[in-house]
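Hi, here's the filled form for the chain we discussed.

Project: internal
Contact: R.S.
Residues: 161
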Amino acid sequence: MAERDGTTLKRKGLMRLFFRAPIALFKARLGWMFGERFLMLTHTGRTSGLPRYVVLEVVNSEPGNGTYYVTSGWGETSDWFQNIQKTPQVKVQVRNRIFSARAERLPVEQAVENLFVYCQKSPLAFRELTGVMLGQKLEATRENCRRLAESVPLVALQPEN
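And the returned structure, exactly as it came back:
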């Protein structure tokens, strides 16, 4: 039993390291490697008040006003999502550009539109992501975008002037 627990802890530690590696790359000013497909979000811990970091895939963006859209793959239970509910002022790093922004959860209709843009550009990625997020791989349709939008929150990161 102890070996199983040790193996489980080791796996969790390796997975954590794997998922946190992009944060180290962004902090080392290597964010350019991710292009505009991923961003690093710096948010404030809701209990600790300390800066926290997460790298997220960009679902859509509006170059004209600088807004980026991301989704919480683990739903409302994601720490970063819970943190931005308490403190919506965040910092966003895309490539090596860092700016202050306000995080705001989108209503379902706006989420559907942004997810539809994503699934049209990346239908295979949409299929794989729905497999992870919903437990079922879905085709890239507007109806399936609605299903996803009703299950996981989509967040707009709007630059503050």
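Let me know if anything looks off before we file it.
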